[in-house]
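user: can you give me the structure for this one chain? tokens are fine.
assistant: on it. calling the predictor now.
[tool input]
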Amino acid sequence: MSVETLTLPATEFRIAPATRPGHVHLTVADLDNELLFYQKVIGLKLHWRSAAADGKPAAAGLGAGGDDLLRLTQDSKARRFSGTTGLYHFAILLPNRHELARAIARLFALRWPNSPTDHIMTKTTYLDDPEGNNIELYAESPEDGGWSLADGNYETRRADGTLSDGREPLDLDALFSLLTADDRLDQPMPPETRIGHFHLFIANLDDAVNFYHGVLGFDNMGVARAFRMAFVSAGRYHHHIGLNTWVGEGAPPAPEGALGLRYIQFMLPDQAELDRVLEHVRQAGLPVEQTELGPLVRDASHNAVVLSVR
């Protein structure tokens, strides 16, 4: 697999390494059903809920007790469109394998379809919510190996040096051995839970990398053209945003009234850093929309990013 990376000059604009994902905001058709799923099946807590009033739709925020990790806004007339840019998945990062084991055991106990996968450097499972939004639940496992860019190739290697395709079946027996008789599957996710990354469908890799790396200043962690995929992050994390053209080169954005992604949010460490990034966006000639959470900018595929202060 051919992979490209950009060497970062010392003077190149970079977003603050402490920048982290905030929450993802989705449009849903049935708020009650989605809230039931995210609380009972995923294990998030309901932080707040507002009824439809004064022309504003019903909405809610969920998380692990701190900042919101997920916001939902209801549009009962919205529908799902295929072949468009938008959200591939959002990834909830659990603090350790034990909590991942509890989360996956809950899915199995409820018989919710999911796909446990060993990426070597992370242990994960994938599932869809009732309206088709894809979710990744994962825990870091760098002690088992990692991925690298060697001789222009994307490689996943186990800790013993052997190659992996990075998409092996997860050893559930080993994972579930971490559970004890005291573990309760009906308890919510722990407060350390956070959003680990977002993965987006985009129309063009170069345009996306130019925006997220060249304008916003995320580190370019690699472009795998044969796989039609790229990774960017803050602080050299393996990826805070995955980008792919798997729905088709030149795919259009979803039209108004679509289910799914409204925006993703990133939290910057302070106002000075937000102002610095915003000035760089304006120097690039990109429009900025003001929201109650902070400025909103859009990539070339019309995916929205809200920049907030932590």
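assistant: here you go. The chain has one domain: 3-309. Residues 3-309 form a domain with the 2,3-Dihydroxybiphenyl 1,2-Dioxygenase; domain 1 fold (CATH 3.10.180.10).
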